[in-house]
Amino acid sequence: MNKRPKLNIPKTRFEKLFDLVATLVFLAWIGYLLIVWGQLPDEVPAHYDSAGVVDRWGSKWELLLLPIISCLLTVFLAFLEKHPEWHNYLNLTETNIEFQFKNSRMLLNVIKNEALLFFAYISFQSIQVALGKASSLGFAFLPIYLGILFGSMAFFIVRSVKNK
Questions:
Q1: What are the residue ranges in the chain where pLDDT is below 70?
Q2: Residue 82 carries which DSSP code?
Q3: 149: how many CB neighbours lie within 10 A of its CB?
Q4: Cα–Cα distances in Å, from 105 out to 91, 124, 153?
Q5: 141 vs 122: CA distance, rounded Å
Q6: Is-contact 19 101, C-beta < 8 A?
Q7: Any bridge partners for residue 136, and if so which?
Q8: How far lies 136's CA from each of 11, 53, 143, in Å?
Q9: Where are the domains of the chain?
């Protein structure tokens, strides 16, 4: 298939629900940031090492970077979600094209929303550290984050390969 058709495949209930949850978390994140802004010290955690310990402090204005990055990433991935005909496939045929498009779109949906949720968690934890209510992201954060992210990718890749 050199020229792939554009199929109109409605979003699944799962995709709609995950988008809704991520949107609500994003709005709560921005709301929380606005509420605590006046209480934040001038310096807040700006970077963490692989063990989740703060290894650089920066201006509280740096806390605005994660919501901005999340917003840009979400818009970009949502745009790509709408165009599964642009994605790369290993075994695309006329009989499995609808499944493959939906599977690829769901992969992007999951990655998009997981990234937003993880960025929100990092921002929340950074605020907690800045306010003296926590000391780090936690040692388990990085392995959990990577496990969920790569586990999700593996799940959808395996589904794609199995559906020849």
A1: 1-2
A2: T
A3: 15
A4: 16, 29, 12
A5: 9
A6: no
A7: 53
A8: 37, 5, 15
A9: 59-164
pLDDT number for residue 2: 57
Burial-class residue 47 by CB neighbours within 10 Å (0-12, 13-18, 19+). Answer: exposed
What are the Cα distances from residue 163, in Å, to 2, 16, 79, 93, 156? 20, 24, 25, 10, 11
End-to-end CA distance of the chain: 15
Distance CA 28, CA 157 (A): 32
Question: What amino acid occupies position 133?
Answer: K
Strands (E), 38-118: 43-48, 54-59
Q: Specify the pLDDT at position 4.
A: 84
CA 138 – CA 156 distance, rounded (Å) = 28
State the Cα–Cα distance between residues 87 and 83, nearest whole angstrom. 7
pTM (predicted TM-score): 0.91
Whether residue 63 contacts residue 126, with contact meaning beta carbons closer than 8 Å, is answered with yes
